[in-house]
């Protein structure tokens, strides 16, 4: 083979190698970009789920607080009724025994 033909073929091989290298680089870049987008989407969805969980947790805490307040008010009301009944009973005993007479 003459030197000119060999030089031509070497140049052709080098050009093909560069083209393959460029294609592989492009494919790797595209894969990296896709992975980056997937990662960003996953981060977004994770953040969204975390926000929803915090909102639900806050709502449950509010519901528990409201239930506790309602129970407290109910118990206080019942206690006041018991005290009023006890005071009424004490007055009735005093009246019946004559202690309340002046």
Give a structural overview:
93% of the residues lie in helices and 0% in strands. With 102 residues, the protein is mainly α. It has two domains: 1-49; 58-101. 0% of the residues are buried. The mean pLDDT is 91. It comes from Medicago truncatula (Barrel medic). InterPro entries: LEA1/2/D7/KIN2.
Provide a short characterization of the protein structure.
Helix content is 93%, strand content 0%. By secondary structure, the protein is mainly alpha-helical.
Total strand segments: 0
Strand content bin: under 5%
Span between N and C termini? 142 Å
Number of helices, where a helix is a run of at least 4 consecutive DSSP H or I residues: 1
- The percent of residues in helical segments reads over 70%
Total of domains: 2
Main pleated-sheet profile: none
Round the mean pLDDT to the nearest integer and report it: 91
Give the helix/strand class.
mainly alpha
Tell me the overall shape.
rod-shaped
Roughly how many Å is the radius of gyration? 43 Å
Sketch the topology as an H/E string, one letter per element. H
């Amino acid at each position: 083979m003459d030197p000119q033909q060999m030089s031509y073929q070497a140049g052709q091989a080098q050009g093909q190698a560069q083209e393959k290298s460029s294609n592989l680089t492009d494919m790797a870049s595209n894969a990296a970009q896709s992975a980056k987008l997937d990662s960003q989407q996953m981060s977004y969805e994770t953040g969204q789920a975390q926000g929803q969980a915090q909102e639900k947790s806050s709502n449950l805490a509010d519901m528990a607080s409201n239930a506790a307040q309602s129970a407290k008010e109910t118990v206080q009301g019942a206690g006041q009724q018991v005290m009023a009944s006890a005071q009424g009973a004490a007055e009735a005993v005093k009246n019946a025994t004559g202690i309340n007479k002046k």
